[in-house]
Specification:
Elements lengths: L2 E3 L10 H9 L11 E10 L7 E3 L1 H10 L4 E4 L10 E15 L5 E12 L2 H11 L6 E12 L18 E2 L2 E2 L2 E14 L12 E3 L5 H5 L8 H32 L1 H10 L5 H18 L23
Parallel strand pairs: 3-10, 4-10, 7-11
Antiparallel strand pairs: 1-2, 2-6, 4-5, 5-6, 7-10, 8-9
Helix pairs in contact: 5-6, 5-7
Length: 309
């Protein structure tokens, strides 16, 4: 997380009156320049982060609006006593010629925050000035995560592509769209985004993956990874089973194949196994195995026309 501090070297903000006007929009009593300490933070950017997720331009634009007025706390601990600072304006920053790791124009969401200059905040202000308190994370809700390989939305069954792996030389990541809400931003110890220093939390641990990435659920991360690997094997088995059912259906009747080609995508493993067994039985009845040997005590004539050896 990069922190750009106004007043770190004693210099005034570019337009004190405009800054105070934006700050006082959130204050019940009018604050003066002497009463507030302001600083700016890079909340997030469009770089692929350590979780192999990436904010889209659309997401950054929505977040720039939603984060105005949001409070800064510590470690995503949603307590009123943890409220420390408040974002009073944001801006999406682009630098000409700067690209992210994907070769796209780099963009960051920068926020300006204020806090009161009082005894309670004196130590925190000193730590910010000293560069000790730097890393932050954002808490937000994202509705859509799109696979960079196939373009499908991430869902419980998954598309089969695993973020972080390479497919034909292309890294898999999930691009984030359709931001629903921005909850807060926090000072944290370990960032996920390398440049902006952001660890994202989507909602209040709405999924198992979100939970194991929190402080409370971190002890279950190894178990979660093992389950993910087992799930990947299960998806591979299901895909192979689906292909076999379609193959057998085509052998039984081309019309059956046409009817199944779309519906099979939504069938569970047990349904596919039952269909596979039924198709195999039908093919066995239609094309029973024939033997070239007679039964016991039976004599047959063989002229070579019926069988080829």
């Amino acid at each position: 997380m990069k922190i750009y501090k106004s007043g770190a070297d004693g210099a005034a903000a570019p337009n004190i009156e405009a800054e105070l006007e934006a700050i006082n929009a959130f204050a019940k009593t009018e604050l003066t320049a002497e009463q507030v300490y302001t600083f700016s933070v890079v909340l997030c950017d469009n770089e692929v982060d350590r979780d192999y997720e990436k904010f889209s331009e659309e997401a950054l634009g929505t977040l720039s609006e939603l984060f105005v007025g949001r409070t800064g706390i510590f470690d995503h601990d949603w307590k009123a006593t943890n409220q420390t600072a408040r974002i009073y304006r944001t801006e999406i920053i682009r630098e000409k010629g700067v690209l992210n790791s994907l070769g796209e124009p780099y963009a960051m969401l920068k926020g300006w925050a204020y806090m009161l200059r009082n005894e309670k905040n004196a130590e925190l202000i000193e730590e910010i000035e000293a560069g000790i308190k730097k890393e932050t994370s954002v808490g937000c809700s994202v509705a859509r995560r799109v696979c960079s390989i196939c373009g499908e939305e991430a869902h419980p069954n998954g598309c089969g592509h695993i973020p972080g792996r390479e497919y034909s030389g292309k890294i898999c990541y999930l691009e984030l769209f359709d931001v629903k809400d921005a909850y807060e931003w926090s000072f944290v110890a370990v960032p996920a985004q390398r440049a902006a220093g952001v660890v994202k939390r989507f909602g209040a641990s709405d999924s198992l993956k979100d939970f194991v990435q929190t402080k409370q659920g971190g002890r279950f991360f190894a178990e979660y990874e093992a389950l993910e690997k087992d799930a990947a094997l299960g998806r591979e088995y299901k895909n192979a089973l689906r292909n076999e059912v379609l193959r057998l259906g085509l052998l039984c009747d081309p019309k059956i194949y046409e009817a199944l080609s779309e519906n099979a995508k939504f069938m569970g493993a047990s349904e596919l196994e039952n269909l596979k067994e039924a198709f195999e039985k039908r093919l066995e009845d239609s094309f029973p195995p024939r033997t070239q040997l007679p039964g016991r005590d039976k004599t047959v004539s063989f002229d070579g026309d019926e069988y080829m050896v």
